[in-house]
Design a protein that fits this description.
The protein contains 13 helices and 18 strands. By secondary structure, the protein is of the alpha/beta class. Helix 9 runs parallel beside helix 13.
Length: 362
C-alpha cells in the first residue's frame, strides 16, 4: 500500500512533491500525472524523473482514456452519461467508468490499495479513486476554487443531486463522503460544510535545503529581481471576455502601475495558457521597465526563487510562499460576484481605481 497523487498541472506536481517530502518521506509515493491538461512534454517528464528519483512518476493522457471509453457508446448523446456508463454497441457490453479505469490504472502500475491525494474531484480519472473501495481519498486544495460554492451547471447532475439530498444548484469541491480529509492553506476560510474534515497544509512550503537545491536545478532558474509582479490570466480562454478586451485591460493596468515613480521594474508573469507573442506590444511600449516572464513556472514556485517581490492580479487564486506558508496575492477585484459577471468596463474601472487608491501595492 502506498500513496498516489493524482495531478493534472505542474503546480499539482510540485505541491505533491512538497507534501510527500514533508509528511510521507519514508513511504512509497507515486505521482500519477495527466500530460494533456497543461502540455507536459517529454523533456519535462524526463526532468521530473531525473531530479526526483525517490518518486515514481506515471504519465498518461486522460483524453485518450475518455475517448476510448466513449467510443461505440450508445450513451454518447450525453456527455455526462457517456463519461460514467458505457453500453458498447459493438460488443453489447455494459461497463462502468470505475471498472474501466481500474483495469487501465492497474496496467499502468497504480496499486489497487492506496491512499489517494487528489486536487480536483471532477476529473475523469478521479472517479476511480472516489467510487472504488480500494482507496482512502484525501484532497489538497487547488486554490480559491476550493473556498466557495460553484454552480452544478447540468440538469441531469442537478436531478441526481436532488435525489441524493444534495444541493441541486451548487457544489463544493471535496464534499464527497468518500473524501476523508481536505487540506487547506487557510483552514480558517474553509467552507462551513466541510469544517469537520478540514485540515491545514501546515508548513509544506518550508522547503528543506535539498528540495530548494532541486528546484533551482530543475528550472535552471536565473533570477530577474523584479520588485513588482503582475499575474495575467487566460480570461479569453475562460470565456470571460475576448482576447482584445483582455489585452486592453492589462495594457491600461500596466500603464497605471508604471506611472508610479516608485516602480522601477515590472515583471508580467504570463498564465501557462497564454502566448508571449500577444504581449510583445506591451514590451515595445514600455521598454526596459517591463519583463515578460513566460516560463511555465507556477507562481508559488516562482516566489520561492525570486527575492520576495510584491505581486498583484485581477482575481487570482495564486499565492506567495512566505516563511513556509502560502499568502494570497493582492487582487484588484475582491468581489466574487463582480468577477463572475465580468463586465469589461467595470472590471477595468475597478482595477484602475484600486491601483490608484492603495499605496501598499508600491
Amino acid at each position: 500500500m502506498g500513496n498516489v497523487f493524482l495531478c493534472t498541472t505542474v503546480k499539482h506536481v510540485f505541491t505533491a512533491l512538497f507534501f510527500a517530502d514533508k509528511y510521507l518521506k519514508r513511504e512509497s509515493n507515486i505521482i500519477l500525472c495527466a500530460i494533456d491538461h497543461q502540455n507536459i512534454n517529454n523533456s519535462l517528464m524526463n526532468s521530473y524523473e531525473e531530479t526526483f528519483p525517490e518518486i515514481e512518476f506515471i504519465f498518461y493522457n486522460e483524453n485518450e482514456l475518455i475517448n476510448e471509453f466513449r467510443a461505440n457508446n450508445a450513451l454518447s448523446f450525453s456527455g455526462f452519461l457517456s463519461r460514467n456508463i458505457k453500453i458498447n454497441t459493438k460488443e453489447l457490453k455494459f461497463e462502468l467508468s470505475v471498472d474501466f479505469l481500474k483495469e487501465k490504472l492497474v496496467r499502468m502500475g497504480v496499486p489497487e490499495l492506496n491512499v489517494a491525494y487528489i486536487f480536483h474531484d471532477r476529473t475523469f480519472t478521479s472517479k476511480f479513486f472516489l467510487y472504488s473501495d480500494t482507496s482512502e481519498v484525501k484532497m489538497i486544495e487547488d486554490g480559491k476554487v476550493n473556498y466557495y460554492k460553484q454552480p452544478v451547471g447540468n440538469i441531469l447532475k442537478s436531478l441526481i443531486r436532488f435525489f441524493l439530498r444534495l444541493d441541486p444548484k451548487w457544489f463544493v469541491l471535496g464534499e464527497s463522503p468518500r473524501i476523508s480529509k481536505v487540506y487547506y492553506s487557510n483552514i480558517d476560510e474553509s467552507p462551513l460544510t466541510l469544517k469537520g474534515k478540514s485540515s491545514s497544509l501546515g508548513d509544506i512550503y518550508s522547503l528543506s535545503k535539498s528540495m530548494q537545491s532541486k528546484m533551482l536545478s530543475f528550472f535552471s532558474y536565473e533570477r530577474f529581481n523584479c520588485e513588482l509582479v503582475f499575474l495575467t490570466q487566460g480570461l479569453d480562454i475562460a470565456g470571460l471576455c475576448s482576447k482584445a478586451d483582455k489585452l486592453n485591460i492589462y495594457d491600461e493596468v500596466v500603464g497605471v502601475i508604471l506611472e508610479n515613480k516608485e516602480v522601477n521594474s515590472l515583471c508580467i508573469k504570463l498564465h501557462p495558457s497564454e502566448s508571449v507573442d500577444d504581449y510583445n506590444f506591451i514590451k515595445l511600449k514600455y521598454g526596459k521597465k517591463v519583463i515578460i516572464e513566460d516560463r511555465k513556472i507556477p507562481f508559488e514556485i516562482y516566489s520561492l526563487l525570486e527575492p520576495k517581490p510584491v505581486a498583484i492580479s485581477l482575481f487570482s487564486s495564486s499565492s506567495y510562499i512566505r516563511t513556509g506558508r502560502l499568502t494570497s496575492v493582492i487582487n484588484l477585484i475582491e468581489d466574487e460576484k463582480k468577477w463572475r459577471k465580468f463586465d469589461v468596463d467595470e472590471i477595468k474601472k475597478t482595477s484602475i481605481s484600486q491601483l490608484k487608491s492603495i499605496d501598499e501595492y508600491f
